[in-house]
Design goal:
- There is one protein chain.
- The chain has 183 residues and is an alpha/beta fold.
- The chain has a single domain, classed as 3-Layer(aba) Sandwich (Rossmann fold).
- 42% of the residues lie in helices and 17% in strands.
- It has a seven-stranded parallel sheet with strand order 4-3-2-1-5-6-7, sandwiched between helices.
- Helix 1 links the parallel strand 1 and strand 2.
- Helix 1 packs parallel to helix 2 and helix 1 runs parallel beside helix 6.
- It is globular.
């Protein structure tokens, strides 16, 4: 059993720039090579599939969680070390979060944003102290960080909200940040 588990939230699509797939693949490789378990949404498509396939190719431990209604749509990847089917999206997020020591958010859409904001809110409320990293491939998360800064500037959150997340530019920086926070 790996000493630590890293939850990766990311798109079920490849995105418009090949750099997203490249960084997703490298993220999976680095997680496996570090001896950490990958926890993710169990899809075999888009960035999700790239992260998982790369981790598997490196002999990594993979833990996928998917709600039953998405098994066909996201092409549930059943050849993982551990594959869990949940009843709901809420249960999926809970199982993923509870089985991880850190969160990494790669480019993605509404689902990735939902997952990110939930763990960010939980951190803000003092419900966890797990590191939350935004892997900012080619500046993808710049508008999100600007929105968070806007929320703070407009008085809807304390400046400490920014302290709950860390922006990294590439998978190498991601690995270094995880090593620093996970030990």
């Amino acid at each position: 059993m790996p000493s630590r588990s890293v939850c990766v939230y990311c798109g079920s699509r490849a995105g418009a720039d090949a750099a997203y797939m490249k960084d997703a693949t490298e993220t999976g490789r680095r997680i496996a090579r570090a001896g950490w378990r990958l926890v993710y949404g169990a899809g075999d498509v888009g960035l999700m599939g790239a992260v998982a396939n790369a981790a598997q190719q490196e002999g990594g431990d993979t833990f996928g969680v998917i709600p039953g209604h998405l098994v066909e749509w996201e092409v549930g990847k059943t050849d993982l070390t551990r594959f869990i089917v949940t009843e709901t999206m809420h249960e999926r997020k809970k199982v993923m979060f509870m089985n991880s020591d850190a969160i990494v958010v790669l480019p993605g859409g509404a689902g990735s944003l939902d997952e990110f904001f939930e763990v960010l809110t939980w951190a803000q409320l003092g419900l966890h102290r797990k590191p939350i990293l935004l892997l900012d491939t080619k500046g993808y998360w710049g508008p999100l960080v600007a929105l968070i800064d806007h929320v703070i500037q407009q008085g809807f959150a304390a400046p400490s909200l920014r302290d709950f997340l860390r922006r990294v530019d590439n998978p190498e920086q991601m690995e270094a940040a995880l090593r620093e926070s996970l030990g």
